[in-house]
């Protein structure tokens, strides 16, 4: 654990914040795993964009898309984070990281096991500390956000987005039907209530509230009905769209805490 290799499942907003935080704390032997066509909403701060653009930089830290495991050390030497298309997490079995973080935020466990690494951390509901992971990080907004749980589970998913400036479900944009999402809007655009954000299968999507488009799924993405495809920030600062959020900083800081607990005292496991 003196210079641990850390694997991160997922490369969306929260997973990217975790990778960024660990990198900034000088844990540099990181790698990330994603599906082939990621559906991140807050793409401006998601390393998953590297899979479309080859590289993605978030607050000064860069992730680079790789096809071959053999190239991983070259990216570490470049002081960057390698990211792979690896929906089955085959790399974990091939190179055996000392630490594994499941940051997919699927609200359920998609296959992570406590035996996958000496330290396994799961974000949010779907994991039980001591059973399928060593630690769970609370992701629900509120008093317990970021709590490191070593016995038990995070709060169950309520299905209601966290409150921001008094708004909950109103700030989330969901697909009205199955189909292909199309839009000419950009993350950071200002929008007024009732304005069209885009369309799915010809059905227009209108903003319920005014503010800044903080997140938006990539146009031409195939979506399913009720799938989250966008997020409106009721504030008026488009710069927030390109920086890590307060929630993501809290959660990522808690992952770092969990890593440091074991880094300094391995007997805790």
How would you characterize this protein structure?
The protein has 269 residues and is an alpha/beta fold. Helix content is 17%, strand content 28%. The chain has a 9-stranded mixed sheet with strand order 3-4-5-2-1-6-7-9-10. A hairpin with a 2-residue loop joins strand 15 (196-200) and strand 16 (203-206). Helix 1 crosses helix 5 (246-264). It is globular and about 55 Å long.
The class by helix and strand makeup works out as: alpha/beta
Strand order of the largest sheet: 3-4-5-2-1-6-7-9-10
Number of strand elements? 19
Quote the beta fraction.
25-35%
Global shape: globular
Question: Number of helical segments?
Answer: 5
Average of pLDDT: 93
Low-confidence stretches: none
- Main beta sheet strand tally, sense and closure: 9 strands, mixed
Short description:
By secondary structure, this protein is an alpha/beta fold. The protein contains 5 helices and 19 strands.
Structural descriptors:
single chain, 269 residues, alpha/beta, nine-stranded mixed sheet, four-stranded antiparallel sheet
Helix/strand layout:
Blueprint: E1 6-9, H1 13-24, E2 30-34, H2 50-53, E3 55-58, E4 61-66, H3 72-77, E5 81-85, H4 90-95, E6 99-102, E7 119-123, E8 128-129, E9 135-137, E10 148-149, E11 152-153, E12 172-174, E13 179-182, E14 190-191, E15 196-200, E16 203-206, E17 211-216, E18 222-223, E19 228-233, H5 246-264
Parallel strand pairs: 1-2, 1-6, 2-5, 4-5, 6-7, 7-9
Antiparallel strand pairs: 3-4, 8-11, 9-10, 12-19, 13-15, 13-18, 14-17, 15-16, 17-19
Helix pairs in contact: 1-5
């Amino acid at each position: 654990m003196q210079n641990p290799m850390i694997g991160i499942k997922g490369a969306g907003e929260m997973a990217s914040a975790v990778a960024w935080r660990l990198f900034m704390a000088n844990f540099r032997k990181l790698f990330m795993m994603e599906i082939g066509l990621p559906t991140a909403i807050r793409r401006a701060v998601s390393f998953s964009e590297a899979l479309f653009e080859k590289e993605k930089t978030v607050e000064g830290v860069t992730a680079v898309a790789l096809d071959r495991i053999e190239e991983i050390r070259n990216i570490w030497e470049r002081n960057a984070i390698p990211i792979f298309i690896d929906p089955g997490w085959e790399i974990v079995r091939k190179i055996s990281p000392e630490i594994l973080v499941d940051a997919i935020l699927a609200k359920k466990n998609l296959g992570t096991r406590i035996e996958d690494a000496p330290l396994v951390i799961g974000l949010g509901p779907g994991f039980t500390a001591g059973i399928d992971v060593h630690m769970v990080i609370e992701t629900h907004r509120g008093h317990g956000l970021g709590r490191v749980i070593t016995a038990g589970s995070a709060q169950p998913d309520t299905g209601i987005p966290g409150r921001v400036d008094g708004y909950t479900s109103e700030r989330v944009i969901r697909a009205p039907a199955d189909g292909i999402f199309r839009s000419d809007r950009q993350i950071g655009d200002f929008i007024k209530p009732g304005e069209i954000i885009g369309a799915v299968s010809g059905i227009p999507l209108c903003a319920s509230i005014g503010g800044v488009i903080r997140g938006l799924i990539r146009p031409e993405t195939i979506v399913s009905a009720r799938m989250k495809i966008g997020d409106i920030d009721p504030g008026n600062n488009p710069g927030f769209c390109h920086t890590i959020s307060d929630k993501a900083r809290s959660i990522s800081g808690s992952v770092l805490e969990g890593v440091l607990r074991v880094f300094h005292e391995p007997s805790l496991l």
